[in-house]
Design goal:
There is one protein chain. The chain is 29% helix and 35% strand. The protein is α+β, with helices and mostly antiparallel strands and 162 residues long. β2 and β3 (54-65) form a beta hairpin.
Amino acid sequence: MKIYQKIFLFLLITAAAVYSQSKNSVISEVKNSEVKIKLHKLVEFNDSKAKSGNKFLIADITVENLSDKKINMGADYTMSITLKDDKGNEYRSGLKGEGIVSTYLTKNESVEQDQKAHTLAFSESFPAKTKARSYLCGFEVPKDVKIVSFGVKKQNLWSSVK
């Protein structure tokens, strides 16, 4: 009987480790001496507010201040987060993206949003040595789009999307 308990315990630990890794996995990351911005996932979201032939993408993002000073994260980084497709088209979240995220969260009540982290990610005085993770940006893109790049256009920071 002990062998079954050991096998069960092993499977439970393995499942927990795999879940933890997938929850924190990163599909793209940009970094400079001030910040590190990780894209964990893009969640497809269809809604009647999207233009015909389009869909919404919600970005799960971590922003981290690596420096020893406060940063205007919103103006310098967050508001310029951009996706690029395989044809070179760019999609920026901006103010419309905030509405897309809000609609997504309203329609998916089981999805947890850290509102404090969300607000902090747009802050004028993002504290030194701090990180925040949130469903941060919403994008309207064509339904058949292939996203290949993630970045902060204002800072010219780009990375490919896995």
